[in-house]
Amino acid sequence: MAKQEDQFKKVISHAKEYGYIFPSSEIYDGLSAVYDYGQNGVELKRNIREYWWKAMVQLHDNIVGIDASIFMHPTTWKASGHVDAFNDPLIDNKDSKKRYRADVLVEDYVAKIEGKIEKEVAKAERRFGESFDKAQFLSTNPRVLKYQEEANGILKRLGQSLEREDLADVKALIEELEIADPETGSRNWTDVKQFNLMFGTKLGASAESAIDLYLRPETAQGIFVNFLNVQKSGRMKIPFGIAQTGKAFRNEIVARQFIFRMREFEQMEMQYFIKPGTQKEWYEYWKEARLKWHHSLGLGEDNYRFHDHEKLAHYADAAADIEFRFPFGFKELEGIHSRTDFDLGSHEKFSNKKLQYFDPEENKSYVPYVLETSIGLDRMFLAVFSSALQEEELENGTTRTVLKIPAVLAPTKAAILPLVKKDGLPEIAKKIVDELKWDFNVDYDEKDAVGRRYRRQDAAGTPFCITVDHETLENNTVTIRHRDTMEQSRVKIEDLKSIISKETDMRYWLQKCEVTA
Ligand code: GAP
């Protein structure tokens, strides 16, 4: 646990030191759970967004994008169920006066049991070496089975209690498990209460005429209310999808863990409109397609797993999370939700407008069902960044800090370094920058010895360093150094563009996930 915490602290300080993420309004001591993206962070975020957009919109001829407003008519949130049901169960500790999400306290308890399972696996791996069969071990080892049964039992009871809104039983569960305040160890808990997560604001020039609004807690509703506009103006035929990226706001009870749980964050959501009765097959399709998208980035297939929901949101008939192994354990990264006709049906009722599709094959109109994929951009950022940050022992006994961000997402693709600041080398390096900058974000760096510059670029996540030396003057070649392997080779200046393209082009990466339907 301490090792995990140390690793997480390193992630946070590295993100700041290298211009990825800063606490918001830091000169005023920051604002809880609100963060700003720096010069490198904004590029990584933009690249992740584009990688998602290309996979979802550009590569699907039946998915289009929109950009709806953050402010929406207040009835939207009545219809969507958020006014009545967008709550989290909170619990206060009477001694420490700290507030927690009751379900998260229980989930963290379960994560500790899962940690014990991982320890057993690691022990057995060391004992059996090459012949170790992890799947068999997990399904037969009595101690692991006992832990697994315990974890499943707790999650099942939590899910059922939340489903029934039986908050007294959630408190009873916390007491039975003897869960203590993680910061103080006190077990003196209040009752569990529901807390609505939406931020309210006002719209209007005077206090009398102002109307109450909410900042949207999800981007999805902007898609639902535009369903007919897009379907009609785009002459879309079912099945079709509408995608959107944008800010969402939630007054989270507990907003720790850096950018994992923020109060202002960005979502990348897609609503896929389908014929009623086909939701099961589309649910499976999108679960697989989204997992492939994640795998295409090469962050390690072992770092992902599905978690099927016991407690379904008010709109869903099936739901699963894609969880990622963050520095603090497996947690939700993306949700795949079968939303039935709940949203469109409810907007029909509240707006008195028909939100139906005339199906020429069936020769009838119906309210489509919806399959949703919803991923947090900031969480994806944290997944990429935290798994990329590595300390490597080198052969010469030193260590290097390297940020192995997939080259396709790296903020800067190449750094151009003159070996020395004289003999015309800076001029050639700048000429290379001027040529490459039309296609890639590139950096020019002439300060310090070249070895130190390599380390600086490794830590910033730049996949290529291109060094201009005296041989360049003779034959127009440079060395190109690969961040991950540290291998260097000599190449012609005129070939640089195609070499960098080959490894950073989205086409090369996205082809791996065969997302085209
Ligand atoms: N439209 C469905 C929806 O919003 P959700 O599971 O509440 O579903 C979807 O959120 C995704 O948004 C999550 O999987 C997560 O990646 C991201 N997300 C949710 N709350 C967040 C928060 N407070 N901070 C950062 N990301 C968040």
In short:
It is built from 18 helices and 23 strands. β12 and β13 form a beta hairpin.
What can you see in these coordinates?
This protein is of the alpha+beta class. The protein folds into three domains: about 1-70 and about 220-390, Bira Bifunctional Protein, Domain 2 (BirA Bifunctional Protein, domain 2, 2-Layer Sandwich); about 85-195, no CATH class; about 410-510, 3-Layer(aba) Sandwich (Rossmann fold). Helices cover about 40% and strands about 25% of the residues. It has 18 helices and 23 strands. The strands form seven sheets. A seven-stranded mixed sheet has the order 3-9-10-16-13-12-11. It has a five-stranded mixed sheet with strand order 20-19-21-22-23, sandwiched between helices. It has a three-stranded antiparallel sheet with strand order 5-4-6. β17 and β18 form a beta hairpin. α2 crosses α13 and α5 (about 100-130) runs antiparallel to α7 (about 140-165). The chain is globular. The model has no long low-confidence stretch (mean pLDDT about 95). Glycyl-adenosine-5'-phosphate binds near residues 220 and 376.
